[in-house]
Amino acid sequence: MCGMKKIILGIGIFIVMLAVTGLYKVLLLDRTRGKIQIVRIGDVSFEVDVSDNPISQAKGLSGREFMEENRGMLFLFGNQGKRSFWMQGMKFPLDIVWISGDEVAGVSENLPPAGFGEIKTYDSPEGVDKVLEINAGLFKKFGFKIGDKIVLE
Predict the structure, then answer these.
(1) N or C: which end of the chain has fewer CB within 10 A?
(2) CA–CA separation, 138 and 117 (whole Å)
Protein backbone atom coordinates (compact mmCIF):
# COMPACT_ATOMS: atom_id res chain seq x y z
CA MET A 1 0.00 0.00 0.00
CA CYS A 2 2.87 2.37 0.76
CA GLY A 3 4.11 2.05 -2.85
CA MET A 4 0.68 2.98 -4.21
CA LYS A 5 0.57 6.11 -2.03
CA LYS A 6 3.98 7.17 -3.41
CA ILE A 7 2.75 6.74 -6.99
CA ILE A 8 -0.40 8.77 -6.29
CA LEU A 9 1.67 11.44 -4.54
CA GLY A 10 4.08 11.53 -7.48
CA ILE A 11 1.23 11.96 -9.96
CA GLY A 12 -0.26 14.71 -7.79
CA ILE A 13 3.07 16.55 -7.65
CA PHE A 14 3.45 16.20 -11.42
CA ILE A 15 0.00 17.71 -12.00
CA VAL A 16 0.77 20.60 -9.65
CA MET A 17 4.07 21.22 -11.49
CA LEU A 18 2.23 21.28 -14.82
CA ALA A 19 -0.27 23.78 -13.45
CA VAL A 20 2.43 26.00 -11.95
CA THR A 21 4.60 26.04 -15.08
CA GLY A 22 1.69 26.51 -17.46
CA LEU A 23 2.58 23.38 -19.43
CA TYR A 24 -0.96 22.13 -18.92
CA LYS A 25 -2.07 24.77 -21.42
CA VAL A 26 0.13 23.24 -24.08
CA LEU A 27 -0.87 19.68 -23.21
CA LEU A 28 -4.59 20.21 -22.69
CA LEU A 29 -5.66 23.40 -24.43
CA ASP A 30 -3.75 23.33 -27.71
CA ARG A 31 -6.29 21.01 -29.33
CA THR A 32 -6.25 22.61 -32.76
CA ARG A 33 -3.06 21.04 -34.03
CA GLY A 34 -3.98 19.25 -37.22
CA LYS A 35 -7.49 20.74 -37.57
CA ILE A 36 -8.05 21.84 -41.14
CA GLN A 37 -11.11 23.45 -42.65
CA ILE A 38 -12.08 24.99 -45.97
CA VAL A 39 -13.00 28.69 -46.08
CA ARG A 40 -14.70 29.93 -49.22
CA ILE A 41 -15.07 33.55 -50.28
CA GLY A 42 -17.10 33.65 -53.48
CA ASP A 43 -15.67 30.92 -55.70
CA VAL A 44 -12.21 30.98 -54.08
CA SER A 45 -11.42 28.32 -51.47
CA PHE A 46 -8.63 28.30 -48.90
CA GLU A 47 -7.51 25.26 -46.94
CA VAL A 48 -6.91 26.67 -43.47
CA ASP A 49 -5.40 25.62 -40.19
CA VAL A 50 -7.90 26.35 -37.43
CA SER A 51 -6.85 28.30 -34.36
CA ASP A 52 -9.50 28.30 -31.65
CA ASN A 53 -7.67 28.75 -28.35
CA PRO A 54 -5.38 31.39 -26.81
CA ILE A 55 -2.19 29.33 -27.19
CA SER A 56 -2.53 28.64 -30.91
CA GLN A 57 -3.92 32.15 -31.50
CA ALA A 58 -0.87 33.78 -29.90
CA LYS A 59 1.44 31.71 -32.11
CA GLY A 60 -0.58 32.01 -35.32
CA LEU A 61 1.59 31.59 -38.40
CA SER A 62 4.77 32.86 -36.76
CA GLY A 63 7.88 30.85 -37.47
CA ARG A 64 6.67 29.41 -40.76
CA GLU A 65 8.92 30.04 -43.75
CA PHE A 66 6.10 30.42 -46.30
CA MET A 67 2.50 29.50 -47.06
CA GLU A 68 1.03 28.19 -50.30
CA GLU A 69 -1.41 30.51 -52.12
CA ASN A 70 -4.50 28.39 -51.39
CA ARG A 71 -3.68 28.07 -47.68
CA GLY A 72 -4.36 30.24 -44.64
CA MET A 73 -5.14 30.31 -40.94
CA LEU A 74 -8.63 30.80 -39.54
CA PHE A 75 -8.92 32.19 -36.01
CA LEU A 76 -12.22 31.35 -34.31
CA PHE A 77 -13.35 33.35 -31.29
CA GLY A 78 -16.31 32.49 -29.08
CA ASN A 79 -17.81 35.96 -29.34
CA GLN A 80 -17.86 39.24 -31.25
CA GLY A 81 -15.17 41.67 -30.16
CA LYS A 82 -12.50 44.08 -31.28
CA ARG A 83 -9.39 42.06 -32.19
CA SER A 84 -5.75 43.08 -32.44
CA PHE A 85 -3.10 41.14 -34.33
CA TRP A 86 0.64 41.62 -34.75
CA MET A 87 3.27 40.25 -37.10
CA GLN A 88 5.73 39.13 -34.42
CA GLY A 89 7.82 36.19 -35.64
CA MET A 90 6.37 36.30 -39.17
CA LYS A 91 8.63 35.60 -42.13
CA PHE A 92 6.28 36.66 -44.92
CA PRO A 93 3.63 39.38 -45.43
CA LEU A 94 -0.10 38.76 -44.93
CA ASP A 95 -3.57 40.07 -45.62
CA ILE A 96 -5.80 39.88 -42.53
CA VAL A 97 -9.48 39.44 -43.36
CA TRP A 98 -11.72 40.50 -40.47
CA ILE A 99 -14.96 38.45 -40.40
CA SER A 100 -18.21 39.16 -38.58
CA GLY A 101 -20.73 36.33 -38.71
CA ASP A 102 -20.61 35.12 -42.29
CA GLU A 103 -19.26 38.18 -44.08
CA VAL A 104 -16.09 40.19 -44.58
CA ALA A 105 -16.13 43.13 -42.16
CA GLY A 106 -12.77 44.59 -43.18
CA VAL A 107 -9.25 43.89 -44.33
CA SER A 108 -5.73 44.90 -43.39
CA GLU A 109 -3.67 44.40 -46.52
CA ASN A 110 0.00 43.72 -47.25
CA LEU A 111 1.15 43.62 -43.63
CA PRO A 112 4.93 43.25 -43.50
CA PRO A 113 6.69 40.90 -41.08
CA ALA A 114 7.69 42.65 -37.86
CA GLY A 115 11.23 43.96 -37.82
CA PHE A 116 13.28 44.82 -34.81
CA GLY A 117 12.04 47.44 -32.41
CA GLU A 118 8.47 48.39 -31.65
CA ILE A 119 5.82 45.84 -32.67
CA LYS A 120 2.88 47.34 -34.55
CA THR A 121 -0.62 45.96 -33.95
CA TYR A 122 -3.45 45.84 -36.46
CA ASP A 123 -7.00 46.25 -35.19
CA SER A 124 -10.30 45.01 -36.55
CA PRO A 125 -12.55 47.84 -37.81
CA GLU A 126 -15.43 46.52 -35.67
CA GLY A 127 -16.29 43.55 -33.51
CA VAL A 128 -15.49 40.27 -35.28
CA ASP A 129 -15.74 36.62 -34.34
CA LYS A 130 -13.38 35.21 -36.97
CA VAL A 131 -10.15 36.28 -38.63
CA LEU A 132 -8.62 34.81 -41.78
CA GLU A 133 -4.93 35.23 -42.55
CA ILE A 134 -3.90 34.73 -46.18
CA ASN A 135 -0.84 35.63 -48.22
CA ALA A 136 -0.40 39.34 -48.88
CA GLY A 137 -2.03 40.59 -52.06
CA LEU A 138 -4.63 37.84 -52.40
CA PHE A 139 -7.52 39.98 -51.16
CA LYS A 140 -6.93 42.39 -54.03
CA LYS A 141 -5.91 39.69 -56.57
CA PHE A 142 -9.21 37.82 -56.15
CA GLY A 143 -11.30 41.00 -56.01
CA PHE A 144 -12.72 40.35 -52.54
CA LYS A 145 -14.82 43.15 -51.01
CA ILE A 146 -16.18 44.13 -47.63
CA GLY A 147 -19.60 42.47 -47.34
CA ASP A 148 -18.57 39.35 -49.30
CA LYS A 149 -20.08 36.18 -47.83
CA ILE A 150 -17.82 33.66 -46.07
CA VAL A 151 -18.66 29.95 -46.10
CA LEU A 152 -16.97 27.48 -43.76
CA GLU A 153 -16.95 23.93 -45.09
Answers:
(1) N
(2) 28
Which residues on adjacent β-strands are paired with residue 46?
39
User: Rounded CA gap, 115 and 119, in Å?
Assistant: 8
- How far CA 57 is from CA of 121, 143, 144, in Å, comes to 14, 27, 24
Residue length of the chain: 153
Residues 104 and 97: beta-carbon distance below 8 Å: yes
Cα 55 to its chain centre, rounded Å, is 9
Helix/strand number for the chain, H first, E second: 4, 9
CB 30 within 8 A of CB 55: yes
Q: Max alpha carbon distance in the chain (Å)?
A: 70
